[in-house]
Specification:
Helix content: 40-55%
Number of domains: 2
Distance between the termini: 27 Å
Strand order of the largest sheet: 3-4-9-6-8-7
Strand content: 15-25%
Order of helices and strands: HHEEHEEHEHEHEEEEEHEHEHHHHHHH
Structural class: alpha+beta
Shape: elongated
Largest sheet: 6 strands, mixed, barrel
Mean pLDDT: 81
C-alpha cells in the first residue's frame, strides 16, 4: 500500500513539476529561516554547567539607596548583581557554604620581559582558589593555588592555554614567570580549553572566550595598573582605582557560593538576611530585605542573557513559517484540484475517500521531506553567514583566536536541531496539506466523470 501511494505521489509531482518545485521552495525557505533563529536561541539559552545548576548560587544584596519614584533599569525589583567590597569580603568569611568564590574582572598588560616580546592587554580575573573546583575548570598543566596563597597573597598565576602558547610556545609553561600590571607572577597552572557558553560567571561578556589570567583576589590591592568599569551608580561618579573603590559604597565584586544541600541553603539564607538586617540597623542599607540566591539558570534569566532580540527573532521566524504554510496550502489546493478528475476516476473504480486523502497526504509528506532537506542546507548556509559575521564583529588585532570557536559554537547545527528541522518540515507539509487533501476526498466523483 505504501509503495502504491508513493508511486502515485511521484507521478503527480512529475505531472506538475513547477508547482511542486514552488511548494518545496516555499517550505524550505520557511524551515531554513526558522532553524537559524531556533539554533541561535538554543545555543544562547543553554546552561553550560547544568550538572551543578542547583548547588551554585550567585549572592545578591540590595544595598541600593532608598527607592526613588522611578528606579532605573529593566528590572528595578532585582537587587544589584554585584556587591560592595566590604560586604563581599564579610560574606566570604562564612563557613556555611561548601565553597565560596570572590571575583573581579580586570584588564592589564602582560609580557615576559623578553627582548622579543611586546605587552599584550589581556583580560584577567582576580578570584579565590575555590573558583576552579566550583566551576569544574580543567587543567592542562599544574594546579590551582593553595589557601595560604590566597591569604598572603603569593605571586602566582593560572593562565589559559592560549596565553601560555602565545607567551611561551607549545608545551608545559608551569614554572615560567610573566609580568601582569607591573607585578611579576609565577605560572603554577595552565587551563585546558574551557569555554562555558554563555559565560555564566561573568554575564557582562557572555559569549566570549574565558579569561586569560587568574590571580589571587587580594592582589587587587597591589595591581595599580588594572582597569575597572570606572563608574559608581550610587554616587554617579567615575571611580577607576581600587583605592577609591574599596572604602566606597560602590558595587563591583561578585560572589558565588556552593550550597550542596537544602539545609545548607536555608542556613545560608538566614545568615544572609541576618547580615543585611545588621547593615540596616547600621543605616547602610536603606531598603527592605531583598536578598537573592540565584542558581545558574535563574541567574542567566535574571540577566536576560538570551535577550529579547533573540526571542523576537524566533517569533518572527515562526510567523514567517506560518505564512509559508498558508501559501503552501493555496498551492496544494490548486495542484490537487487540477488533478481532481483523476481522483474522481479512482473513486469510481472503488477507492474510498480515506484512500484518496491518504494518497494525497503521502504526496504532501514527500514534498515536505524534500523541502526539509533543502531547508537544512539553507540553514547551514545561513548559520555559516552568522558565524562569519559574529567572528568578524568580535575579532580584534592580537585577540584570542578562540573567538572563532565561540562563533562556531553559537551557530552549530547539532543533531537536535536537525531533528527539529525535519519535524518542522513534515509538520508544515501536513498542516498545509490536510485541508486540500480532505477537500479533494470529499468531492463527489460523479462531477468529474461527467466532465470526462
Amino acid at each position: 500500500m505504501l509503495w502504491h501511494d508513493l508511486r502515485i505521489a511521484f507521478r503527480s509531482i512529475r505531472q506538475n513539476p513547477f508547482i511542486a518545485a514552488l511548494i518545496v521552495a516555499v517550505i524550505a525557505v520557511g524551515i531554513g529561516t526558522s532553524v537559524v533563529a531556533i539554533t541561535l536561541y538554543h545555543t544562547k539559552a543553554g546552561n553550560p554547567i547544568w550538572w551543578k545548576n542547583d548547588v551554585l548560587f550567585r549572592v545578591m544584596l540590595d544595598s541600593r539607596p532608598a527607592p526613588h519614584e522611578a528606579d532605573a533599569g529593566q528590572h528595578p525589583e532585582y537587587p544589584p548583581v554585584t556587591l560592595i567590597y566590604r560586604d563581599a569580603a564579610a560574606l566570604y568569611q562564612s563557613k556555611i557554604p561548601a565553597n565560596s568564590a570572590l571575583m573581579l574582572a580586570a584588564y592589564g598588560p602582560v609580557d615576559t620581559r623578553s627582548p622579543t616580546s611586546r605587552p599584550l592587554n589581556r583580560p584577567g580575573r582576580l578570584t579565590t582558589r575555590e573558583f576552579f573546583s566550583m566551576f569544574d575548570v580543567p587543567f592542562l598543566y599544574g594546579h590551582a593555588w593553595s589557601k595560604s596563597d590566597d591569604e598572603r597573597p603569593t605571586q602566582v598565576v593560572v593562565i589559559s592555554r592560549f596565553l601560555s602558547e602565545r607567551l611561551f610556545g607549545a608545551g608545559n609553561s608551569v614554572g615560567q614567570t610573566l609580568v601582569f600590571s607591573g607585578q611579576t607572577f609565577k605560572v603554577i597552572g595552565v587551563i585546558d580549553r574551557w569555554m562555558p557558553l554563555p559565560r555564566f560567571y561573568d554575564v557582562g561578556r557572555s559569549f566570549v572566550p574565558s579569561d586569560d589570567l587568574f590571580i589571587p583576589f587580594r592582589w587587587v590591592e597591589s595591581l595599580s595598573n588594572l582597569h575597572f568599569p570606572g563608574f559608581c551608580a550610587r554616587t554617579q561618579t567615575s571611580v577607576t582605582t581600587f583605592r577609591e573603590l574599596a572604602p566606597s559604597e560602590c558595587i563591583f565584586v561578585g560572589l558565588w557560593v556552593e550550597l550542596s544541600s537544602t539545609a545548607q541553603f536555608r542556613e545560608y539564607r538566614q545568615f544572609l538576611d541576618g547580615y543585611a538586617t545588621e547593615q540596616q540597623q547600621a543605616r547602610r542599607f536603606e531598603r527592605p530585605l531583598n536578598n537573592r540566591l540565584a542558581n545558574v539558570s535563574t541567574w542567566l534569566e535574571m540577566n536576560d542573557v538570551v535577550g529579547n532580540q533573540t526571542k523576537f527573532q524566533v517569533i518572527l521566524a515562526l510567523i514567517f513559517l506560518a505564512i509559508c504554510v498558508l501559501n503552501t496550502l493555496g498551492l496544494l489546493l490548486a495542484k490537487f484540484m487540477s488533478g481532481a478528475p483523476l481522483a474522481g476516476l479512482r473513486r469510481a473504480l472503488g477507492a474510498t475517500r480515506a484512500d484518496v486523502i491518504r494518497q494525497h497526504l503521502t504526496e504532501v509528506v514527500v514534498l515536505g521531506a524534500v523541502a526539509g532537506a533543502i531547508g537544512i542546507v539553507l540553514a547551514i548556509v545561513g548559520l555559516r553567514l552568522v558565524r562569519i559575521y559574529f567572528f568578524w564583529q568580535s575579532k580584534r588585532p592580537d585577540d584570542n583566536p578562540e573567538f572563532a570557536t565561540v562563533a562556531q559554537s553559537l551557530s552549530h547545527l547539532d543533531a537536535r536541531m536537525i531533528l527539529i528541522s525535519v519535524g518542522l518540515s513534515l509538520l508544515a507539509g501536513l498542516l498545509a496539506g490536510i485541508y486540500p487533501a480532505w477537500r479533494i476526498g470529499r468531492m463527489a466523483p460523479a462531477t468529474f466523470l461527467k466532465i470526462q
